[in-house]
Amino acid sequence: MTDIRETLRAQPLRIGISTRALFNLEEKHAVFQSQGVEAYSALQLEREDTLIGKGPGFEVVERLLRLNEPEKPYVEVFLLSRNSPDLSLRAFNSIDHYKLGIKAGSFTSGRSLGPFISAWELDLFLSNEITDVQAAIEAGAAAAKLGTAPEARQEDPSDEVRIAFDGDAVVFSAESDELFKNRGLQAFLAHERENAKTPMSGGPFGKFLRKLSILRKIFLNDQGVSRVRIAIVTARNAPAHARVVHTLRDWGTPADEAHFVGVRSKGPILKALGAHIFFDDQIKHVLGAAGVVPAGHVPGPHDPDEPIIPAGL
Fold first, then answer.
1. How many structural domains are present in the chain?
2. Which of 26, 90, 161, 268 is the 20 to 30 Å CA partner of 180?
């Protein structure tokens, strides 16, 4: 256990998050869109000492940072913002109020955050700005576009952090998606049966999952339960489900939960799971989940409106 602790401390799980993903700045963003940068800046300066509400990425960041011990951290979070340095004061005042362990970041006065993804050595980037998400992906980080926080979330007194992922084109490569798209459902099912024990290649969140799994292992207790809980929520069902299990086993990244939902909505499953964040490459699943869990859209290689890998009949 000492070895993996030191390994992760040497290269912590590094997350970058935009101010609008961490905090609820939708009202101020509307001012920016309708009245321009000067009106937006004036409003922010006027409210410099006013606490900012929590945004869609706040809870998962807060829970991950709680895992850190007094020594070198397992998780580092950086604030990346297109705001000006002047406006950083309000953000860090709010961070201090909430006692989040965020001390560093970049404020670019409107410039793209893309060049700073590699500079901060990020494993994951969360933003509401799609161009910055795309830039992060091009820089090799896992990245997702968050919407707004769910209006009603039940208080969760547990010390767990529960992160849920779609499978294909998120954790795994889009290879099976493409096979279904080009050759149809029966060819896809036959291929997955034949290759059930052949591990899939990693997708945009593959590396992030591997690093998150180290964190999960560090907090695994004697009963096999971790404070870091990983779930796969996928439209695959039997027989295509088997390849998911064998791939995770081969990677050494076991999931605490797997939900093979077929054609059913993922929202009710995610609500029952109590996920603190969910990542999917299909907008319909992101929108379906967003009312109950902070949900991030992972830009994929296909039309977001196309059905990808429906359940086998």
1. 2
2. 268
Q: What is the pLDDT of residues 160-194, one digit of tens each?
A: 999 999 999 999 999 988 888 888 888 888 999 99
pTM score over 0.85: yes
- What is the domain range of residue 196? 161-297
Residue 212 CB partners (closer than 8 Å, separation 6+): 13, 163, 228, 230
Summarize pLDDT for 25-43 with one digit per residue, the tens.
855 445 455 545 565 666 6
Flag whether 310 is in a domain: no
Known catalytic residues?
Answer: 166
CATH of the domain at 70: 3.40.50.1000
Q: Do residue 9 and residue 120 come from a single domain? A: yes
Mean pLDDT of 80-94: 88
